[in-house]
Write a structure and sequence with these properties.
By secondary structure, this protein is mainly alpha-helical. The chain contains seven helices and four strands; from the N terminus they run ααββαααααββ. The strands form two sheets. A two-stranded antiparallel sheet has the order 1-2. β3 and β4 form a beta hairpin. The longest helix has 24 residues.
């Protein structure tokens, strides 16, 4: 839970910094909790229409489009920042923010039509051809300690059914035991 809180705080800070950068381009230097709701709604609407990732290595400065979920996560981070600073404004429900909510919904639809938001980095199982390639190239195998370690890790992952980081993170010393069968052969349980 403490790790999740740190990640949430990091995301809130990161998304607030991105909004502040956007607002500076509009010559707006006030904090969001100091801005009247109608003006803040206008700023959010413009952000959702125009926002792109910042590319620090480019002269142009703006890079790729954001994923639809990232834009929603940004709005949630801004709401957290408002609450943390004593604001009673709720950008997710208050009537003053209906325009930015509509713009966000439409922007999400546009981005999805452009192929974003389809979880391109989502995990998927390896097919037999991919597994064979890992063994045939020596990435998995018995040829050296590192390839053996990879193969053992992969086989244990498959056989123990671990598919997500959360399950691997929860694994503790003692969850797996070294046992001996009736023939004296050692195995992991």
């Amino acid at each position: 839970q403490d790790i999740r809180a740190k990640e949430t705080q990091y995301n809130t800070t990161s998304h607030m910094n991105r909004l502040k950068s956007f607002m500076l381009d509009m010559n707006e230097t006030r904090e969001i909790w100091e801005i009247a709701p109608n003006d803040l709604d206008r700023i959010f609407s413009q952000f959702f229409m125009k926002a792109k990732k910042i590319n620090k290595s480019s002269i142009n400065k703006l890079g790729e489009l954001y994923q639809p979920d990232t834009l929603s996560n940004m709005r949630n981070a801004w709401q957290r920042a408002l609450e943390e600073n004593g604001s009673k404004v709720n950008i997710n429900r208050d009537a003053e923010f209906c325009q930015s909510r509509k713009v966000l919904a439409e922007r999400r639809k546009q981005l999805t039509k452009q192929g974003l938001g389809n979880k391109p980095l989502a995990t998927r199982p390896l097919n037999d051809e991919e597994v064979q390639k890992l063994f045939s190239t020596g990435y998995f195998g018995l040829s050296n300690p590192l390839s053996l370690q990879r193969a053992v890790w992969w086989k244990m992952t498959i056989n123990f059914g671990y598919r997500a980081r959360e399950e691997a993170r929860k694994l503790k010393f003692g969850d797996i035991k070294l046992a001996i069968d009736e023939n004296g052969i050692k195995y992991l349980e």
